[in-house]
Amino acid sequence: MSSSVDKELESVVIRFAGDSGDGMQLTGTQFTNAAALFGNDLATFPDFPAEIRAPIGTLAGVSGFQIHFGSTKINTPGDMSDVLVVMNVAALKANLKGLVKGGVIIANSDGFDSKNMRLANVPEDQNPLTDGSLAEYDLKVIDVTKITRAALADSGLGTKEIDRCKNMFVLGLIYWMYHRSMDSSIEFIKSKFKKNEAVMTANLKVLQAGWSYGETTEMFANRYTVAPAKMNAGVYRSIMGNQAAALGLVSASVKSGMPLFYGTYPITPASDILHELSRHKNFNIKTFQAEDEIAAICSSIGASFGGNLAITGSSGPGIALKGEAIGLATMLELPLVIVNVQRAGPSTGLPTKTEQADLMQAYFGRNGECPVVILAAQSPVDCFNMAYEACRIALEHMIPVFFLSDGYIANGSEPWLFPQTKDLQDIKVEFAPERGNNDDKFMPYLRDEKLSRPWALPGTKGLEHRIGGLEKQNVTGNISYDPNNHEQMVLLRQEKVDRVADYIPLQTMDNGPETGDLLILGWGGTYGALKTATAILRGEGLNVSHAHLRYINPFPKNLGEILKGFKTVVVPELNNGQLVKIIRDKYFIDAIPYNKIQGLPFMSTEVVNKIKEILA
Amino acid sequence: METTEKLTSKDFASDQEVRWCPGCGDYSILKQVQTVLPDLGRPKEEFVFISGIGCSSRFPYYMDTFGMHSIHGRATAIATGLKATRPELSVWIITGDGDSMSIGGNHFIHMLRRNPDVNVLLFNNQIYGLTKGQYSPTSEQGKVTKSSPIGSVDYPFNPIALALGADATFVARTLDRDPKHQQAVIKRGYEHKGTSMVEIYQNCNVFNDGAFEVYTEKGSKKENILLMENGKPLIFGANDDKGIMLDGFKPIIVNLADVSANDLWIHDETDLVKATILSRFYDDPTHPDHKPRPFGVFYVNSNKNTFDELFNNQMDAAMAKGLGDLDKLIAGNETWVVN
Ligand SMILES: Cc1ncc(C[n+]2csc(CCOP(=O)(O)OP(=O)(O)O)c2C)c(N)n1
Ligand code: SF4
Ligand SMILES: [Mg+2]
After folding, report:
1. Tell me: the pLDDT tens digits for B247-270?
2. B94 lines ligand 1 (CB under 6 A)
3. Cα–Cα distance between B65 and A458 in angstroms, integer?
4. What's the first-to-final CA gap in chain A, in angstroms?
5. Residue A102 Cα distances to A135, A216, B118, angstroms
6. Does A442 touch chain B (CB under 8 A)?
7. Pocket test for ligand 1, best of B58, B76, B131, B136 (most atoms within 8 A of CB)
8. What is the three-class DSSP state of A593?
9. CA distances from B83 to A57, A303, A306, B138 (A)
């Protein structure tokens, strides 16, 4: 029996890392569910290679999953990990720099044999498990492969299948270390392998073996408890950003009573929205996998013309292809939501890595004067809210709306105090009514107080009309080359976007007063890191506030007022300075850019240091 | 339809002034469509014309129906989205040879393989009209245009063969100068369940005048046109004196003085192999041993489900039990309570 001592921790960051075939994503998600069910607050960050099966054992093939869970508010997956689980030497090599000094390493020794050393380009005489280089860490070496094989010796399974259970050993051990119930994973294994009893039994057995290993060996001096977080009361679930976005779209469809049409072409990291939506046909959700992104958006425009809540989704390269059609939708003044789950660019860039470098593309990436509404989600859960908002604005204002997410929040997960659908804001949609022979001629570009035009569906008697990409006369919608009309129409389309500001919430402060020495002004997926950094800075007595933009075009009406209240405004972004240019231009302030362009999210400590440097 | 009066072609003309060049073949196509539509027995508001960009694509502005003049090459994709979600509408695609074969080539073949129940009218003038006369993907090799002053080196596409290769279910060819033939083919295209692809030879009298002269002029047309009619032998010639026979897979021209009409190739619209052979009657009409150019319906396949049917069958099956419970969906499978 182990004589381990229990220790209480406020929060812990664990990183599971192994070969892409080692099942680390599954291990991480399982532990995440258990932590969530236990009542911890948490945030996760999967970090996988672009290749589905990169060469086994190599650095390129390392797949990681980081979870930060705690008894306090958790905003990010954590800058550094406290515990690093590595299935092979490549995983150690790729992740060691992200482990805190003195942190725990749980290493599968079988993954450090000469073959793995060679594949990871580590010289034979420098095995980190034995050469003393890890002296600063709390190293636990376990031959996971050997134990797993021994446990399943009489399972009747082949070696390959047996080895695939290794990750369950790790999971069981971590469950033991953190006093977690294995029930949710036992349930999961039972349902996942219900058609293959032998594999089910094997996984359950190895999971238990991991737990027992902790219990019986003397290897672990400590076990840890992380109490449930004090979170707002209510019913929670865990959710990933792309899933939340999809649910936001479905909710907008149901609440508005409009069938949803999602035209798209697969691309990382946006495809999961398609996968999710395609499973919900019973909510009148229609998905169409087109031949390319141009066809995807065009099919959506056709669906919008026909009276659907039309959505198209992609990532940067696909959005580039959609540019011309976004211009068409702007001219047609039909509702359309364009989802961009941003990834690192340009071109193919780093497909599985995150970035916020498509803001200018959303703002200006079309020919002619072509303004569109732009919203951005700030966290996995917020993807639900902003996807819903994008639909509401598109439908109620007859206008294309960009919804920006990014690879980091799209794949990250967190607990969600999900709303009741009755509490979601109503979405009102009206179609132009039928006209008789004696009615006046239908005017397709007659505008209401929002400057939006009537939605006139094909099939409605008396509304026959033509729309298109050529400039139109206001009100009649007839083609017009009149110089003054063109200018008027350009200004009207701009004014139509600007007026959306009357229908969105005012900007609020996330932390700190509305005036002070320094404002951290962020947008999109950097929210968690900036929030944590602000709390640290304020905790040290610095007069720093944080505001986070989710409505980017138009800005909330009070933004200018807020900016004026600070001596210094810093705009941290995962790009080479995009929002900062717009802020400087629009509000004429000397906002300071702070940029990171590594395909990685901000670490809160980086932000803290940078802000201190600016204040110094 | 509540109006008891039958619609006339005038009812389908919008109040917009038609702006094609005088003498352009597009006028005839507009007229034939406006003539055919009243006979289809559907209310006006059910028709939607979607076009890309080009002279031809101005067409929807002149029709008093629903219409969209979209962007270059993409009408096919827009129409697919509309038809998928509003299958009860009669959706028409107006496109040019540049619009459908060049910039929109990808959407064109993918629409054909999916087979939504829409009607395509491909105005083929073998030139880029709107951009003032560059060679197009259907221009013959060697064509001298503004952008090919010493002749184009590109081989042309054969739109009929391309459509058959993309598994189109209705493939036909007609020409601007034969109103009756055009009307008949357009009507058959409309009646077909699935995508109907009708190529219309259209004279651009400004940039490519006379491109189809041999098929339209009295002196040459009978020698150069092969009018296909289902179940009838393939006969042509100034005095209906020639026919086509098949020698294995090889088509040969025979003199009716030597061969009885009963022994000729009898046109069978449902035969894909024979349609494919006919589609390859595509030689240069100035060569002495060329075959006549076929007009009419090459191929019809009525057995392939339409995209809109399949798409909506899945929807109907999923919706059969009524709209899902959104609160349940949002809650997911695993929740926990914080007190
Ligand atoms: C994206 C884009 N590229 C180029 C053009 C310019 N353009 C307009 S029409 C056209 C060619 C049209 O040819 P076709 O489809 O044969 O139509 P036609 O004018 O002959 O009827 C071109 C190249 C455009 N409008 N949009
Ligand atoms: S340029 Fe040619 S195709 Fe265009 S309208 Fe004139 S004649 Fe017709
Ligand atoms: Mg043309």
Report:
1. 999 999 999 999 998 999 999 999
2. no
3. 9
4. 55
5. 9, 24, 68
6. no
7. B131
8. strand
9. 50, 8, 8, 28
Domains annotated for chain A, with CATH where assigned, are: 5-226 (3.40.920.10), 237-423 (3.40.50.970), 516-615 (3.40.50.920)
Rounded Cα–Cα distance for residues B151 and A546 (Å): 65
Closest approach of B111 to chain A, Cα-based (Å): 9
Mutation target vs A (from B16, B71, B130; most A CBs, 10 A cutoff): B71
Locate A391 and state its tokens: 């639909």
Distance CA B165, CA A85 (A): 54
Strand order in the sheet with A11-19: A41-47, A62-70, A11-19, A81-86, A99-108, A138-142
Cβ atoms within 10 A of the Cβ of A501, count?
A: 17
- Return the structure tokens found at B207: 């940039």
Length of chain A: 616
ipTM exceeds 0.90, yes or no: yes
Q: What is the pTM of this model?
A: 0.96
Reported in sequence order, the residue ranges of chain B that DSSP labels E, i.e. its strands, are 47-51, 66-69, 90-96, 119-124, 170-175, 196-201, 225-227, 235-236, 242-247, 250-255, 293-300, 336-338
Which run of H or E residues covers position A86? strand A81-86
User: Is any Cβ of chain B less than 8 angstroms from the Cβ of A283?
Assistant: yes
Query: Which element (helix H / strand E) includes A415?
Result: strand A413-417
Check if the beta carbon of residue A116 is closer than 8 Å to that of residue A22: no
- Is pLDDT of B325 > 80? yes
> In whole angstroms, what is the distance from residue B13 CA to residue B109 CA?
31
- Over the stretch B109-161, which tens digit does the pLDDT of each residue have? 999 999 999 999 999 999 999 999 999 999 999 999 999 999 999 999 999 99
Distance CA A543, CA A540 (A): 9
CA distance readout (Å), B235 to B206, B244, B266, B297, B300: 34, 7, 9, 15, 21
What are the sequence ranges of the domains in chain B? 9-211+305-311
Residues of B with Cβ-Cβ distance to A327 under 8 angstroms: 71
B261-264's contacts with Cβ under 8 Å and 24+ in sequence apart are: B261/B233, B261/B235, B262/B233, B264/B233, B264/B234, B264/B235
Nearest Cβ partner of B84 from A235, A286, A296? A286
Q: Ligand 3 center to residue B84 CA distance, Å? A: 28
Q: Does A487 touch chain B (CB under 8 A)?
A: no
Burial group, residue A616, by CB count within 10 angstroms (0-12, 13-18, 19+):
exposed
The pair of structure tokens assigned to A62 is: 């390392």
In the CATH scheme, what is the code of domain B9-211+305-311? Answer: 3.40.50.970
